[in-house]
Design goal:
The chain is α+β, with helices and mostly antiparallel strands. It has one domain: Aminopeptidase (3-Layer(aba) Sandwich). The protein is built from two helices and four strands; from the N terminus they run βββαβα. The two termini are 28 Å apart. The model has no long low-confidence stretch (mean pLDDT 93).
Amino acid sequence: MNIEKGNSEYYKISVVKDKKEIGRCFIFLIRNELHKNPYALLEDVFVDESMRGQGIGTELVKKAIELAKNLGCYKIIATSRETRENVHKLYEKLGFKKWGFEFRIDFNGE
């Protein structure tokens, strides 16, 4: 069995107000040998609790989708906990479709 270390490429998109970050998300570009172009993984979408409901999350996700397209990604994937129905509605409103399941193993309680 061989293991090769790859390079991880990511972009952070953030919204700053009065020198404080009030929202952010990341997209990670993932490459494999099955596709010429990478795909994007949308991760860690966050808006400060006091600023929620103002469309900041929507704009962050829209910008992430646009960036993934501009970077030549063939798809973008977003994950969310099963209980976060408001997040699911946002993703679906922006064009995401439910597709499969996420399986995970947590290490070190994180």
